[in-house]
Amino acid sequence: MTQNKKGIYIQLYNIHGLIRGHNLELGLDADTGGQTKYVLELAKSLSERDDVRKVEIMTRFIREKELSTDYSIKNEKVNDKLSIVRIRCGGSKYIRKEMLWDHLEEYVDKSIKYIKSNGELPDVIHSHYADAGYVCKELTKFFGIPFIHTGHSLGRSKLENLLKNNLTEEEIEKRYKMSMRIDTEEDVIFYSDRIITSTNQEIEEQYGKYKTASEGNYKVIPPSIDLSRFFPFNEKREWGEDFQEIRNHVRDELWKFFTNMAKPLILALCRPEKRKNISGLIEAYGRDKQLQHRANLAIFAGIRKDITKMPDIEREVLTEMLLLLDKFNLYGKMAIPKRHDVEHEVPELYRIAAETRGVFVNSAYAEPFGLTLIEAAASGLPIVATDDGGPRDIIGNLENGMLVDVQDPKNISDGITAILSDENKWRKYSNNGIDRVHRFYSWKSHTENYIKMVKEMLDETKEQPKSFISTGKRLFSFDKMVIVDIDDTLLGDDTALNEFKKLIIDNEGKFGFGVATGRTVDSARKVLAENDFVEPDIIISSVGAEIYYHNKGEYVLSTGWEAHISNQWKRDKIIELMSQFDFLEYQEEDTQRKFKASYYIDTSKITPDEVKEILDAALEENRIKANAIISHNQFVDVLPARSSKGRAIRYISYRWNIPHESIIVAGDSGNDEDMLRGELLGVVVANHSSELKKLKGRRKIYFSNKSFANGIMDGMRYYNFLEE
């Protein structure tokens, strides 16, 4: 494991939305907005520092015919220090963020695999939004990596605003998966080492709504913008042909809508979301005839080709915009362009609006920060903004516009009119924005504060970090493992058991050790303790239904494995089906698990082979995806289709990047069969049951002539396991 190289290695997790190293397609969908832009610019700014060695943006791999092939480049090199790493989860099609929750454990698994394949842990991981927060929470629990989180928006605040807009809790849950988001945010507050906010109001009024709010360690660092692109409208620069072409294109687009281009321009740029309250701005303009006479309105609400083919949320908002345009007969006065080039056209759009003596408007119901407000300020365009969240701090710092209560559209139109009708006020707000933006919102000051915070985090030592599973770092360093059954494989010969225990202790750090058993985790721990054996790094219990990682004398359930096997698991239906067979007896409750139903076989009525055949047929006939596993010719365990000892071991192999041919597995009975098959290095001890005789002669399955733990050690010698 390589670590302690000169300079800081930072991973920024931005899972949803479309992000690339150039010409961001902001507004292409509801998930590609200010957050995407902030993450890319933060990454670029950090990569320019001498004390930063490496920056990676971790996002989702997307391959879709309608989208740029840029989003399917697995490792995009942005500059010498910065890369965008794309990890596949939930397939390769684009999925909006509300639908990603069920696939995040896959992202965790593949992130661990990627990190381990690199051979070094990042110094810091930084999540953006709740979905990335979930992933980083899991990573920090395994590795203890310092963990920063930026929410960008919070579920509880969004829930309140949606309820105010007459959506029911059922509708909100169906559309936004809000309960999962809020639960995750509660955990992220607890597990993160720092939470970056844009404002103090965000801490008090937004994070303050959470039960774990007092656990958070908050740091206010306002976002910044690229001031080389967003420069004042009245600043003289050397213009090239490309620049003039951009200006002409922007003007031509507006001319398509306006009958009189000489009027001031009211400008809005935002994603087509309900909370952005675009309808409130249109209504404010539509109801004010004098404002229509005085100024034009241009709303750039994302990028679109065909509204009818867009996702429900965006389609509803854009359809409402068009209906309001028609309702108030705003033809010739209002523009809703279909496209805009964020990299080149948007900065020029602000300057064109400023040249017309116009105003920029943010009419959102809730605005955590508002990067567009800073962009407008840097360009010399005064602003009218919602009296909520970030705009309060921005206008408080820059004094370049007005805050209004956007719940009443008239407040929006009154604010716009107050600026447009007073030339002195317009000039004061314009100059203030230009003069003060460098002091408060430059990337240089932002990254200076960011790295200072990171260095403080790295210097901190905590006696017992709340976010740490000790086995995570152990597994990170292992490239070999031994995983064995307990009863009649590990146990059965006390002398051999003690010899195997000594072998494990003497080779500490050379390989990981785990058990795979039909016992419950508590039963497994109890019997190992009674035999004074070492505590395994991993316990695969209940015939593969559960995986537990060792952590300082305790065992932590693998939520990743649980999520993996839960697909189409119907335990109640299985129990109802099994009750029809008189040769099965439901086992005691303490042997039953969430993902396992266990039975005794009455062998006086039927043979074990017949049981297997009958149960498999019954499960298939009832369309239940599950496995019936027979062991010791007297027990049946019904498990999820994805669950078994072998599948659990292969999951561990994949997650921790340990090759199959570097994992020895040893067993003695039928419930060990699937872990002995395949590419793992199988060992069958001499005292095995008749169920395993059929495996003789198979490649990579060694039948030892020694019993119990002696058989395990014999297998290790056979495979030259401890050879370097």
Task: Give the key terms.
16% strand; Rossmann fold; alpha/beta; 724 residues; 27 helices; eight-stranded mixed β-sheet; 26 strands; single chain
Written overview of the protein:
Helix 11 links the parallel strand 10 and strand 11. The strands form 4 sheets. This protein has an 8-stranded mixed sheet with strand order 3-4-2-1-5-6-7-8, sandwiched between helices. It has an 8-stranded mixed sheet with strand order 19-18-17-16-15-24-25-26, with helices on both faces. The model has no long low-confidence stretch (mean pLDDT 91). By secondary structure, the chain is of the alpha/beta class. Helix content is 41%, strand content 16%.
What does the secondary structure layout of this molecule look like, with pairings?
Layout: E1 8-13, H1 34-47, E2 52-60, E3 75-77, E4 82-87, H2 104-118, E5 124-128, H3 129-143, E6 147-150, H4 155-164, H5 169-176, H6 178-191, E7 194-197, H7 200-206, E8 218-220, H8 241-255, E9 265-269, H9 278-286, H10 289-294, E10 296-300, H11 312-327, E11 334-335, H12 345-355, E12 359-362, H13 371-379, E13 383-386, H14 390-398, E14 401-404, H15 409-420, H16 423-441, H17 443-459, H18 470-477, E15 481-484, H19 486-490, H20 494-506, E16 512-516, H21 521-530, E17 538-541, E18 546-551, E19 554-557, H22 559-565, H23 571-578, E20 584-586, E21 597-601, H24 608-621, E22 626-631, E23 635-640, H25 645-655, E24 663-667, H26 673-676, E25 681-684, E26 701-703, H27 708-718
Helix pairs in contact: 1-17, 2-3, 2-22, 3-6, 8-12, 9-11, 9-15, 13-16, 20-27
